[in-house]
Input
Amino acid sequence: MYETSSWAIAIFVAFVSFVLWISYHFARKTKTAKGYFAAGGNIHWSVNGIAFAGDYLSAASFLGICGMIATVGYDGFLYSIGYLAGWIVALFVVAEPMKRLGKFTFTDAIDAKFNSKGVQLTAAISTLVVSTFYLIPQMVGAGTLVTPLLGLPHWMGVVMVGTIVIIIVATAGMASTTYVQFLKGGLLIIFSITIVIVTLYNGLTTHPKSSRDTVYHQLATLPVKLNAEGQPQPQDWHYKLLSTASPAKGFVFAKLDKDNTQSWWHLTKDQNGEDVLTETYWVTVLANPVTDKKGLKVSTLYNGIPITESKPIQEGHIEKLKYNGKEVDSVSNLSIAEFLQSIKESTIVRFLKKTFPDGDDKVTVYYQTPTSGKDILTPGILFKVDSAKGATLMNKLNFVSLMMALFFGTAALPHILIRYYTVPTPAAARKSTIVAIAAIGLFYVLTLFMGLGAMVNGVVDLTDNNMSAPLLAKSFGITLFAIISAIAFATVLGTVSGLIVAASGAVAHDLMDRFFDMKLTDKKKVQAGKIAAVSVGCIAMLLGVAFKGMNVSYLVGWAFAVAASANLPAIIMLLFWKGTTKQGVASSIIVGILSSVGLILLSPDMFERYGMLRTAAPISLDNPGIVSIPLSFIVLVVVSLLSSSQKNKQYLRPSAVPEKLAV
Amino acid sequence: MKHGPATDWSKDKASSFKTRIGVWMFILYAIIYAGFVIINTFNPKIMGSDIGGTNLAIIYGFGLIIFALMLAFVYNAICTAAEEELNGPDADLEQSEEM
Output
């Protein structure tokens, strides 16, 4: 369990209260549907640009990317590159036309040409599905944040965010969401710069501490002799071998006893090629819960101690630190170039995990994996792309699929698209996108330094890497940690608010008002939007609890794939192909949703989530984009051609060809 | 309530020019992005090549971010100039409310 600080809690509560006050302030000004769903369409482009950054730099970016870089190095930074590249599609292809065509929602723009019930229904469903997929990582991130900050369990964080967001959205809508995002987007960038400056100033050391009042723990190594059965016998007579486990080929873990205290060790070889056992960290999930000192039933142990009494497992350090080619113990006051060069020349200890049964209990062992800095600063640790290191064609397809989804996903996210309706003109939409690219680009450059800083400073929580950046801030001081956590929490609040406004717009405006033709008054429409917001918020809370522990950026990768498959073909083809028909658009949206969501549900990652073996998954593709995006495009073209030729046959006159779209 | 666009943009005479420029700039960036993905997929060792104190992976990655920003500024400058020339200097301020 993390120790809580009342100072940190005070800063956090003050910040969240301020956010709620902003919400209340703008709530009083919001009277119309346009005010609720599009902030009256009169936000200044510079404010909207930073609000874009606030919307976009969600839990996935600050928590997920930094966490991923902290565990797998450059492969996590690929998300930063892909997320930013996606804005090029948004700026050059989508921004101005979307502003011209739409009014409140993504569906408006898609349906502007057709006024078709089928398009209205499918586009609204797509908005709901994509928003829900995007909501999952935000809620997971929220739960992760409150654990170290407020000492609350994960589910409580999820419920807290859900409740606060429902209050924000149900009271004020897009205007307050915009100003909350503006505030939080700006602060996130300022404080991320602060973390990077402190990281570079403090420099690198082989003995990092996870906070100012902790002592660096030197991990032990035990020389061993292998007996006839190949079991490791420690040469230090204080240790006795109890049992061994071999969860995978080439892996042996030994359970040792010393003075009636048990511990798990990893059998490996030292620099001289001698057999040794290296110390590990481990988490035990007990079949039969034990009682802690406070009398609570506990079924999870950290290093043999009930989770309620133990410290979190935080690690990651440099084994051999090199500066300008020389081996040193520590080095400080580094420039950006010196920091990267030192990391590249050094050897860093990362921790990988293996899970196996120990009697009736389940043990997850986190073992040391020394990795060269050169490998950390090149792709390949998470995404297996090098054939020489055993990468398969499917590994490569997974990588291409992810990069495709990131590139094409941004411009198809409903909560990003609706932000184009908060500015007065298409030119303002363009300018706000450019401000967003500048702010987001700067932030993504910083993620590499925050992630690498966390990796080598002993702060990565091995059980959940999402908190790496805030925990890096905690190692510098509790105030910086509290501010960063409050901003990150507001980040989640803001993004979730935007997503829920998008989802409630789909229900109230697209479905009720337009598809079902309910002829809602302005007031009724806002009311329906608020009821929809509460419902979507509750669903998001349940999903946030269900997906606990998964890297939030990884989850966002899925949301991007669904958005790019369901929405982008319709947007692009509408703008650039005159032959697009309403049947083509509706079919493409449906096929995009079904294929992307279907492939995700059948992926090895989801099978692992279901508690089954990855190999049991019928397909071995983890990211669906490479299949579902082209498929959705093909369906749009084929159905459009078929439906327009049928129409031509029916009327036998050229006027039946869809009108030219003004772009 | 009408369901048309929120604002009157039909007077934007620079629209088709901006669309063309946007598509060309998108294609340019997409080619460079695709190059990054292709190198990573088919010859990842090249990404580890030393360039100064760092490697190609870092330079290309940062390069993609900085290049996106540069293109965005250039695109905005071209579009603003086109709008001013074709629509007049105050075109950006035009708007009409439908509510």
User: Anything to note?
Assistant: Chain B touches chain A through 57 residues (CB under 8 Å). The two ends of chain B are 7 Å apart (CA to CA). The beta strands of chain B are 50-51, 54-55. Residues 56-87 of chain B form the longest helix (32 residues).
